[in-house]
Amino acid sequence: MLNVGIIGFGLSGRVFHAPLITACEQLSLFAIASSRKQEIANSYPHAQCLSPDEVLAHPEIDVVVIASPNALHAQQAEQAMKAGKHVIVEKPLAIDSEQCLQLQQVADETGKCLSVFHNRRWDSDFLTIQQLIANQSLGSIHSYAAHFHRYRPVVKQRWKELDPQGGGVLYDLGAHLIDQSLCLFGKPEKLWAHIATQRDGAVTPDCFDLHLIYSDKKVQLSCNSLMVEPGPRFQLHGSKGSYAKWGMDPQEQQLAAGLSAKARILGQDANRSEIHLAGQAIVHKPLIKGNYLAFYDNFVAAVTKGETLAVNAHQASEVIALIELATLSHQQQTICSVN
Fold first, then answer.
1. What is the DSSP pairing of strand 48-50 with strand 27-33?
2. What is the dihedral of CA 241, 266, 32, 38, to 10 degrees?
3. C-alpha span between 334 and 332 (Å, rounded)
4. pTM above 0.85, yes or no
5. Alpha carbon distance 277, 70 (integer Å)
6. Please, what are the domains in the chain?
7. Tell me, what's the pLDDT at 156?
8. Residue 165, pLDDT score
9. In the chain, % of residues over pLDDT 90
10. Which letter does DSSP use for residue 46 in this model?
11. What is the CA 155 to chain-centroid distance, rounded?
């Protein structure tokens, strides 16, 4: 049994990590660092409520999950590994790509597992798209579009929307979209980006349009915080047909509503999912069940059996490098080459 300490009990710590940890038979939620002491006592009475430094230094904690503001990720991850802990960091791993690579070096030096919670790899729709591509169901893919549009007209008073150091939708939602694209197609040759603040009072980016340029396909990733009707979340086009998916994977909503991460219905996605092959009628494409627990199962296997991490710091650094390049592309209003 591995004892786990979580630093942070906001959305990611409360909705994702704590429920998934308690559902994993080889993990025990030992402590949580947060000011929400009463909420922690009500939800997880067996977990100690400690300070971040106490979690990082506690001799009985084997794994530290860092779900604090983005600007603190790199420092806390390094401190945890040097204190002998395995580490999971809520994405992004760090706010610059060089920090990500430095953290991988610390992991190598200390012999500790370091992973990043890119949970959207285990969304129902993304798993389905991976299957379609692997099976060549649509032929050769030439176009891919994915968005994270929402209608949130009022800026919330929280660090994700107020902190210029790693705040804004590009580091938040964009990191997921970029990571998914890298998983599907690898690194692009070039990119172009437009980044904006649309809402009254917005101080960090709340909108972006990112084009990843490949020799044989085009990829468009976008986010808009004022989109009432967003249209299909994913669109995939190939030489033999097209695929479109509407709506979000349900796991976040289900976990936020209190559904157990062990529940059989967790990840069952009933949203509209359509495949249209050339010359044939549009048909429903059943969605693979989403499975965020797979991330933790893999991490436990890496710690206890030496299996390969599904998400590592090098992969996380490639995501941040593209975010940095997207920022440069927007500032210079130009297409940038990807190294």
1. parallel
2. 130
3. 5
4. yes
5. 43
6. 2-119+294-310 (3.40.50.720), 120-290+322-332 (3.30.360.10)
7. 84
8. 76
9. 94
10. T
11. 22
